[in-house]
Amino acid sequence: MSDNPPFTHALLAGALAGTTVDLSLYPIDTIKTRLQSSPGFYPSGGFRGIYAGVGSVIVGSAPGAALFFVTYEGIKSRLRSTRESTAGMSEPVEHMVAASVGEVAACAVRVPTEVIKQRAQAAQQPSSMAALRFILTQRRKVGALGVWREMYRGWGITIMREVPFTAVQFPLWEGMKAWQRRKTRRDQVTSVESGLYGSVAGAVAAGLTTPLDVLKTRLMLAKEKEAALPLFRRIWREEGPRAFVAGMGPRVMWISAGGAIFLGSYEWACNTMSGVT
What we know:
The protein is mostly helical and 277 residues long. It has 11 helices and no strands. Helix 1 (7-24) packs antiparallel against helix 11, helix 2 (26-36) packs antiparallel against helix 11 (248-273) and helix 7 packs antiparallel against helix 9. It is globular and about 55 Å long.
């Protein structure tokens, strides 16, 4: 794959990658959500109905991932052009900035998807459609703006989780790909190589950002809207620091496997559309 695929390639490859990874690893995501929920794993459903909420993922995965990659590749290309023409920022910093902006853009789709999905996963509602309907019926009570805020509950903490995550994952992934190209003297890496490096980078980033993921899950599942800092203090006081590593094992496993599938399938799709074997 060329270092910066065309817009259409990034759009289609990102949509394919997002849908593939989210559907294939959905059961692990459900287990992680239930481990992090306030009632606990078994009261939230245990191993029953592990595909609860999958409807929201089917709808939201493709546009969210596509939006991320077209933003990421576009910003990365612009920053590289600036660096080559002037004394711009270093390449790893370019990847951090591009990935961070891409995540903020993708969260416009991802956050509502997560809110609906996690309420179904934690057995607060029987399905994604039921969770969506429940939120929409609140319009009479809280108005359209209140419904909008409920759909985007946890926006801030999601950004706080995703930006550090991508700031770790993507420079690692891009750095390992660059090392592979130098080592093999090839212009591109294979989808298998990309997937392997995506898995390693994802596992590292997932472990480091688990506390933020726990806080995000609690915010999205809370019965009433609550600020992040008071919630953090309450969890620390009532449950101790171990609560902030709840679900770390499934999260690292899920994102490590997800990194392999996500970035491997993205590379495969871009290579295929570019005619690279």
